[in-house]
């Protein structure tokens, strides 16, 4: 894409730029069906006049915002060159990343680098990070032996970890995948549930099975589980074991107590990798029980080869309303804590 900045039209701080889209990229891929992508850009930069004529896009407005729009179109073109389509969500996230980089955050990574980093391709779809924090989380898994992914629901903590586990298995970096999570509700009530032990714990492990089915041929999963290549089990089954040559994921780690967290971390064997995911705002432990996930950061922060990745509501990749719900709850909880603090004095 060529960019032709022109002289300001007399208004201080105002600039004009023109972007020519190469003919090999139909304008609908750049602007979206019914100009849906263009509307996202116009909404993000309401003070910039954006016009389209043929294969040219022009922007007039504040010099800094016009420069950001120039960068945005450059990044969009880089993504389109890979054959990956641009979506409204991808444009919104690209704009957020570019604005963050203007504030000195994430200057080393560009939207195109984030949006085109493939982790795993399965049955015609590709799993990749969608936000800067997700990319950093995925990179941390490559670079460290133990990684904690901490953040609210919908930020891809478990899903991306599962994709990295399947990638590691397929590339023979490990010989097995072990997926585990605490069955918090199980406790003594487990005995009152009907069925065999596996039928009783199945509801707690079902989200892990669902993710596996997205990433592997469903017909191959029973065979992989039967020969021990993939193991899905409650956390209690990890006690007393040493896990070598494995990619191990502990999901819903906020529902471990400190003793369980220590037990799990000390299962680490040679040539293995551990990813621990959880949301410290959704602890389901009985009243008074400390969360091992909340405590472990104070204990292991600064320990070499252990990394803590934090994801936020900005990294939610479910329906965009989920991010707003997470923010609303966080605001409510903070207000409650402040009220409780004042009343307690």
What's the alpha carbon Rg, rounded to whole Å? 24 Å
What number is the mean pLDDT?
A: 85
Shape: globular
Q: How much helix is in the residues? A: 40-55%
Largest sheet: 6 strands, parallel
Task: Report what the structure shows.
The protein has helices at 27-31, 36-44, 63-81, 88-102, 111-115, 132-143, 157-170, 197-215, 221-226, 258-265, 292-300, 320-344, and strands spanning 2-3, 14-20, 49-53, 56-62, 120-122, 125-127, 146-150, 176-181, 230-234, 246-250, 273-278, 306-310. With 345 residues, the chain is of the alpha/beta class. The protein is globular. Helix 2 (36-44) runs parallel beside helix 4, helix 7 (157-170) packs across helix 8 and helix 10 (258-265) packs across helix 11 (292-300). Helices cover 42% and strands 17% of the residues. The strands form three sheets. A six-stranded parallel β-sheet has the order 9-8-10-11-7-12, with helices on both faces. Strands 1-2-4-3 form a four-stranded antiparallel β-sheet, with helices on one face. It has a two-stranded antiparallel ribbon with strand order 5-6.
Topology:
Blueprint: E1 2-3, E2 14-20, H1 27-31, H2 36-44, E3 49-53, E4 56-62, H3 63-81, H4 88-102, H5 111-115, E5 120-122, E6 125-127, H6 132-143, E7 146-150, H7 157-170, E8 176-181, H8 197-215, H9 221-226, E9 230-234, E10 246-250, H10 258-265, E11 273-278, H11 292-300, E12 306-310, H12 320-344
Parallel strand pairs: 7-11, 7-12, 8-9, 8-10, 10-11
Antiparallel strand pairs: 1-2, 2-4, 3-4, 5-6
Helix pairs in contact: 2-4, 3-4, 6-7, 7-8, 10-11
